[in-house]
Amino acid sequence: MINVPNIKPYTKPYQTNVQPQNNPMPANSNQTSVNAPANKTITTPPTHSEPKLTHTSWLYVNDVHGKMTNMERIHHISQEFEKIPAEVYSANFFTNTAQPIHKFKVASGDIILGANYLHNKVASKFMDWTGFLASTIGNHELDVAKPDDLAKLIDDSKCKMLSINLDVDKESPLKSRIQKSMIADYGNIKVGLIGVSPSDMLERGKMNDTLKEFSIKDIDTTINLIKDEVKNLQNQGINIIAILSHSGNKNDKRIAKEVEGVDLIFGAHTHELIEGIKEGKNLFYSKTGEPVIITQAGQDGENVGILNVDFDENGVIKKAQNNIIKTRKFTRPLYIKDTVESILGKPEVIGKVKSATPPPENRLIESNAHANIIVDAMRKELGTDIGILNSGNIRGSFSEGPVDTRLVSDITPFEDKMWVINLTEKQIVDSIKVGLKSLTTPANKPGILYVSGLKYKANKKGDLLEIEFIDKDNKAHKIDVNNPDPNKKYTVACDDFYATGGNNYIKKDDPKNFVLKQYDFDKDKLACDYIKKLPQPLEIKDDGRITFVD
Description:
By secondary structure, the chain is of the alpha/beta class. Helix 9 (369-382) crosses helix 13 and helix 10 (405-411) crosses helix 13. The relative contact order is 0.13. The chain is globular. It contains 13 helices and 29 strands. It folds into 2 domains: 24-34 and 49-329, Purple Acid Phosphatase, chain A, domain 2, CATH 3.60.21; 347-549, Alpha-Beta Complex (5'-nucleotidase,  domain 2).
């Protein structure tokens, strides 16, 4: 048990105890008890008896990124969450079970990823099948390239889309389809939900027709908008308020400290896995001294969170427990797989894996044998000198057993269009250096570049030390890292995100200056064609094309 000392009255009159919690669902659990004031307006500890508690249990997800296999597992977890009484899976938490336990399912954005409409439709249907009340608009929801398509996905879903800081063009088909907030009304309990989109949204996505329909507020303006909406909800008698935030952990902490009346912030965007509850990490106090809890469940649907919270009669947190569940411990229900295939069609088996090295812990800044298959396919299928792929493009891995088209799409789901471009030696070296800066940036973004036809070495500070061009005869040609040739050019297979200056790997330029060919398909098609031609079964292992030294 970790004991946080009592804090003097008039500053933070609370005591926080973190205790392990046994849970029949596979989870990492921590319980936090917060002795909060009985009334929100006072700043001294209560002297009367414990008020009547409102029991709540929240299933939350964030940054699922269109990972359909994990969506199926999350659906399974959701069914268990509904069927198993909360007092059973949290037997040491809900001690007064005479009161009802209210269950909520919420998401914090980036459930969708990429431009494939059928894949986006599956992600939207998943939200309905699983019974999510609401989600916010993350940056990847705007990967849906056509505004009419996104409007249809929202119209066809029961899950409400929320964003308080996203302005929609008045002529857009998306106008009025995105709400600032909503009230979940269960008769004897009403909860306010507010959506927050990322202030860097327009910098994080590939420009398309949908993205042009929006403008986004900066974080300072956003915080003021949240304050106004909280007051609006409170004026309607709502005293339990949660934020569905795709604003990132740094901004979520600001919201927790600066906005009065917010109780829970279900976070996203920075892909952090926040386990348990700890003061200063994800337990904060508003200006009036009320506790605020922040969550995040990592990325790619690898985890699901269950947050149990008891509120007093004034909507102040009295006790809380944060559980993290690994989705891989749950199976994909056959009926859900069949339902997904009714939308996508049956996948085609294209190969078999005999053995595969584990994927890297941090795919953004580590060499990745699974990505090498994809970028090799880009180079070899398009017949270029070099292949370049940003590491953020890879969202999964191969494993022992059959490889089908759906798995490949799961690994590289963005559906960007393939291009062949001409880049100089200097442009290529500068681009790799941009990626290597990610070793020292917050959340390691935007990530290193995976390569084919190149080999490079860097130190763990992100300095490029050596680079070689490997020609089609497998001969190595050294490139001067400090003085790359500004005139010598190479043909490069890449996607349109990279080619148009996405994440600033290369400078934005008029495409006619360097584009040789543009295709109407993504790298997943190339990968499938390439894998079919490889000797079977496959052995996926790192070949040392990217190395890091101390």
